[in-house]
Automatic annotation (TrEMBL), chain A:
The keyword Plastid does not apply. This is RNA polymerase sigma factor SigM. CDD domains: Sigma70_r4. One of its GO terms (biological process) is DNA-templated transcription initiation. Residues 196-205 have a biased composition (Polar residues). One of its GO terms (molecular function) is sigma factor activity.
UniProtKB/TrEMBL annotation, chain B:
It comes from the Bacteria. Residues 109-130, 161-191, 210-245 are annotated as: Disordered. Residues 213-228 have a biased composition (Polar residues). Residues 109-124 have a biased composition (Basic and acidic residues). This is Uncharacterized protein. It comes from Paractinoplanes tereljensis. The chain crosses the membrane at residues 134-156.
Length: 217, 321
């Protein structure tokens, strides 16, 4: 089977990799690395952590390609491994918090240590505050939003990647967007046009207990 | 309106409703009724739905990202490394089956019948298929460490006492001699004699995959408290003499138990040992095991009793960057 343009499909390349083709896995990585990188960086938020997570994940995928059963797309499988590597790193960071540096560059919770690098766009400021609001979300909501709202994956594929029900993905995305809407001051009544302040997120009853209330759907 | 004005409203429930997460559930009609009947809910719905749509648009407008060149280079180098060699195809997919080179705790999908049969034929305990996966690389590794040991004893002018180790796998030794210390797919065994500390645990030896037995037995990072020439200082290496506390760990089965214990205490699924260094930690004999797992690469310093009673005898651990 080949992809539409005549190039071998990801599944073909994976089989070639298992058959000993030394270049095949590299081609798969080349096809998907930018999206995997975007998911990792926006989920972890720290460039070095993201690089480590992607490398570890792809090394594991490379070594354990024989375990791929073909019940999902290769790209979904790769995303799942990368996202899990990211989430593991975040949870490890939470379990073993590091001592903050004097300049406070290392966060002790699941928040990214630093915002992802900014791109030189005219909407730079807006993008910056949106990224920061995204980084402030609980990690489960952030991971779902990165996949669905930022990267544009269907809810079904995001559910497969994160290993949860589609309803859970919808819930995490919706609650994350709501939090961000409050944090970004996007809530307003019919005609007043007023914007909330950025501290309003603290008033939203979507703390850990509330946030998980329906996440187990 | 700010979030403060939503105090009478369950924002999460409302967000679920707006996001379609309640579709087909009893909550969907309940929330719809609240929006229809309760002004606070209605106002919150109108405000939040607009805000969430705006956020969705902003998230979708974030610029695409490209993996930086340095990360690409690092990734390509890692994938080109021998440690990235793929595991053999499972027995269900290809024949003849061969032992896996990665320790997979609880991976029943790969406890293939052929492996179980082989294990019983070798007199292993039932259910030890996981251990068998390491049999081949560990046996080869035993050959390597025996070879390294022989070299150390020879340089020290002593009679080699490594025949028992070498006999554990004559084929492995032959393979080891061919491959020197490079063992694609299995952990590299070293006897660097390095005296690691908490601050140097994560560093060196840094040439574990293609180096010769001699060069790979040295810690190459100057920050590591290593003998400058461990091949010429076997006493300091502390890994060859007859009263070596680490001697038991040269038995492949015992080493396997040690790695099992590390994997269990690491609590992160399968681990992929890259090197095992018969060395020291804070002056005491220690095994330095470098491995990768889901969450990253680690260096563990474990004591001579590693594996005993299922305990790793962990002295220290450090993430490898």
């Amino acid at each position: 089977m080949t992809s539409g343009d005549g190039a071998p499909s990801d599944a073909d390349l994976l089989r070639a990799h298992l058959d000993g083709d030394a270049q095949a896995f590299g081609e798969i990585v080349r096809r998907h690395r930018d999206r995997l990188w975007a998911v990792a960086l926006r989920t972890v938020g720290d460039r070095e952590e993201a690089a480590d997570a992607v490398q570890d994940a792809l090394l594991n995928a490379h070594r354990n390609a024989a375990k791929f059963r073909g019940d999902a797309a290769v790209t979904t499988w790769l995303h799942r491994i990368v996202v899990n590597a990211c989430l593991d790193r975040i949870r490890r960071r939470q379990a073993h918090p590091t001592v903050p540096l004097p300049d406070g560059t290392r966060a002790d919770d699941d928040r990214p240590a630093a915002p992802e690098p900014a791109a030189p766009t005219e909407d730079h400021d807006t993008a910056l505050v949106v990224r920061q609001a995204l980084a402030d979300l609980p990690v489960e909501q952030r991971a779902a939003i990165v996949l669905v709202d930022v990267q544009g994956y269907p809810v079904s594929e995001a559910a497969e990647i994160l290993g949860v029900a589609e309803g859970t993905i919808k819930s995490r995305c919706a609650r994350g967007r709501a939090r961000m809407a409050v944090a970004l001051g996007h809530l307003r009544t019919g005609g007043d046009g007023s914007h909330g302040n950025h501290n309003a997120a603290q008033t939203v009853p979507s703390g850990p207990a509330a946030g998980e209330r329906r996440d187990q759907r | 309106m700010t979030g403060a004005e939503f105090r009478e409203v369950d924002i999460d429930l409302l967000a679920d409703y707006i996001g379609g997460a309640l579709s087909g559930t009893p909550d969907e009609s309940s929330v719809a009724a609240l929006i229809a009947d309760d002004p606070a809910w209605r106002a919150a719905y109108e405000s939040l739905s607009g805000g969430m749509a705006t956020v969705g648009a902003q998230l979708g407008a974030l610029e695409p990202m490209v993996m930086p060149d340095d990360v690409v280079a690092r990734l390509e180098a890692a994938l080109a490394s021998p440690i990235a060699a793929p595991d053999p195809i499972p027995a269900e997919l290809a024949a003849p089956p061969v032992p896996h080179l990665a320790l997979v705790r609880g991976d029943h999908a790969h406890d293939v019948p052929q492996e179980r049969t082989t294990a019983r034929e070798r007199g292993s305990k039932p259910g030890s298929a996981r251990r068998l996966r390491w049999a081949t690389p560990i046996a080869i590794a035993a050959g390597v460490i025996a070879f390294v040991g022989f070299g150390l004893d020879y340089l020290a002018g002593r009679e080699s006492n490594s025949s028992d180790m070498a006999s554990s796998s004559a084929a492995g030794e032959a393979q080891a001699r061919q491959n020197s210390a490079a063992m694609p797919g299995g952990p590299q065994l070293l006897a660097s004699g390095t005296d690691y500390t908490a601050s140097t645990l994560a560093t060196g030896p840094l040439e574990p995959f293609a180096a010769s037995a001699k060069s790979s037995s040295r810690a190459t990072d100057p920050s590591v408290q290593s003998e400058s020439a461990p091949m010429a200082a076997p006493d300091q290496a502390g890994s060859i003499s007859g009263d070596d506390p680490l001697a038991r760990l040269r038995n492949p089965a015992v080493l396997q138990e040690c790695i099992d214990a590390i994997a269990a205490e690491n609590s992160d699924g399968p681990i992929y040992p890259q090197s095992v260094d018969f060395a020291r930690f804070d002056g005491s004999p220690a095994l330095i095991v470098r491995f990768s797992a889901t969450q990253g690469s680690w260096a563990w310093a474990v004591g001579p009793s590693c594996g005993t009673g299922g305990k790793a005898n962990t002295l220290d651990t450090a993430p490898v960057r």
